Amino acid sequence: MPLLNTATLLTDAVDRGTGLAAVNLVNLESAEAITEAANRTGLPIVLQISQNCVQYHGGRLRPLAAAAAALAESSSANIALHLDHAEDPILAHEAIALGFGSVMYDGAALPYDDNVRTTREVIAHAHDRGVIVEAELGEIGGKDGAHAPGVRTDPGEAASFVADTGVDALAVAVGSSHAMTSRDAALDMGLIARLRSAVPVPLVLHGSSGVSDAGIRAAVRAGITKVNVATHLNGFFTRGVRDALSEDDALVDMRKYLGPGREAMTAGTMHLLRVLSLAPTPSEPSSRDSGMMVRSAPAS
Ligand SMILES: [Zn+2]
């Protein structure tokens, strides 16, 4: 079906009290893995493209966006497209013109007043075109390796920020950090609950790769709605590729290793979707589930 507005998926998740998975693609195969996970589970998902990913592809957003939209259209699942961590308002405008359902404008590194002013400008442009905006307050650690974890979003400041900007979803710093490869981050559930009470818009958890399944479920129950995951699922893809390559030194056909990577990421994403649905879930896929070539279980 056609791409949905992210607002629809967020509202549905809030109404159901479940989490909404938002997973970053980096290439066609990872975009296929994410949409296939939604197809197989019948659960909604947000496909995300980050500004860093756009830079990796030579600054070109359009080819990735077109592929993501085409995959969503050929899918039976509810899928929205989101621009992740745009620090450049011009890129946000481009995404809006390309049909994204939401954009994250990340002004968290700016002083509070500048963050409010620039976020407002992006929101005015987006809302005129029916697109919602996510912003970040409290600078979640780990982005570009520049920020140490330990920062927390203050509920009072969060309430003021939402009121001052009119932002539609808020990424909060509650103990997770970007790009973690171990899943031992301890989230502050009490702070999530206080933020949930203080802020009228859906809360977004970034750096979720460092959080265990149980931690993610508890965070959703405490008040998180959108859960962003990149590194943890990249790990599935990469282990699938590595295993295929290490089993055959003579392998040259890219499909023979990208295919297992894609299948491993599909299985990992299906598991994440089930965790976020809060339905009882079996343990995470590990060795050779669904015929894929994954030798080792993901970190923890
Ligand atoms: Zn993030």
Give the helix/strand layout.
Layout: H1 6-16, E1 20-24, H2 28-41, E2 45-50, H3 51-56, H4 62-73, E3 79-86, H5 89-97, E4 102-105, H6 112-127, E5 132-137, H7 155-165, E6 169-172, H8 189-198, E7 203-205, H9 213-222, E8 224-229, H10 231-247, H11 254-276
Parallel strand pairs: 1-2, 1-8, 2-3, 3-4, 4-5, 5-6, 6-7, 7-8
Helix pairs in contact: 2-4, 2-11, 5-6, 7-8, 10-11
Zinc ion binds near residues 85, 206 and 228.
Can you tell me the overall shape? globular
What's the SSE pattern? Answer: HEHEHHEHEHEHEHEHEHH
Helix content: 40-55%
- Tell me the count of domains: 1
- Which small molecules are bound? zinc ion
CATH homology group: Aldolase class I
Separation of termini?
A: 36 Å
Physical arrangement of strands within the biggest beta sheet: 1-2-3-4-5-6-7-8
Number of strands: 8
Name the CATH class: Alpha Beta
The whole-angstrom Rg is 18 Å
**Tally of separate helices:** 11
State which percent range the strand residues make up. Answer: 5-15%
Mean of residue pLDDT? 90
The helix-and-strand class reads alpha/beta
Describe the protein's architecture and organization.
Mean pLDDT is 90; it is low at 144-148 and 290-300. Helices cover 46% and strands 14% of the residues. It is globular and about 60 Å long. The protein has one domain (6-277): TIM Barrel. The chain starts with 5 loop residues before the first helix and ends in a 24-residue tail after the last helix. It has 11 helices and 8 strands. By secondary structure, the protein is α/β, with parallel strands linked by helices. Helix 2 packs parallel to helix 4 (62-73) and helix 10 packs antiparallel against helix 11. An 8-stranded parallel beta barrel has the order 1-2-3-4-5-6-7-8, surrounded by 10 helices. Helix 6 (112-127) links the parallel strand 4 (102-105) and strand 5. Bound molecules: zinc ion. The site of zinc ion has 4 residues, from loops.
